[in-house]
């Protein structure tokens, strides 16, 4: 007797590298994001295991490409300085960015920032800084 085993091919999940949102709403916000990212990156320039990024999509959970955020600046200690299209936490030894910076713009709302705080707390960020 022959038994047929049916398998279904899973469609690979795509984790977009862009959310279609601008990095900043104005030149001052952009300047602060670049200054913070550049300053922290310079501080750790000789440490190959501190990854610093600006406006990079972070996906904390494998299999869910809707659960994501792009912090203005994030720091992941224990991760190598390599080029990434996005930060897929499960491919990063499950290390969440430990530090996140957000630079407020006129379009940010208190509700939006509270949601970000909740996201960051839920997925392992240890320090969260908001620049006004």
Quick description:
InterPro entries: Nuclease_put_TT1808 (IPR012296), Restrct_endonuc-II-like (IPR011335), Uma2 (IPR008538). This protein is an alpha/beta fold.
Commentary on this structure:
- The structure is a single chain.
- 23% of the residues lie in helices and 18% in strands.
- By secondary structure, the chain is of the alpha/beta class.
- The chain has a single domain (27-131), classed as tt1808, chain A, CATH 3.90.1570.10.
- It has a 4-stranded mixed β-sheet, with helices on one face. The protein has a two-stranded parallel ribbon with strand order 2-4.
- α2 links the parallel β5 (99-103) and β6 (127-131).
How far is the first residue's CA from the last residue's CA?
Answer: 72 Å
Please tell me how large the radius of gyration is. 18 Å
Unreliable parts = none
Record the strand order, biggest sheet.
1-3-5-6
The tally of helices reads: 2
Q: CATH homologous superfamily?
A: tt1808, chain A
Could you tell me the number of beta strands? 6
Q: What's the overall geometry?
A: globular
The whole-number mean of residue pLDDT values reads 93
SSE arrangement, N to C: HEEEEEHE
The major sheet is characterized as: 4 strands, mixed
Number of domains: 1
Assembly state (oligomeric): single chain
InterPro entries: Nuclease_put_TT1808, Restrct_endonuc-II-like, Uma2
Protein name: Putative restriction endonuclease domain-containing protein
Domain Putative restriction endonuclease: 44-131
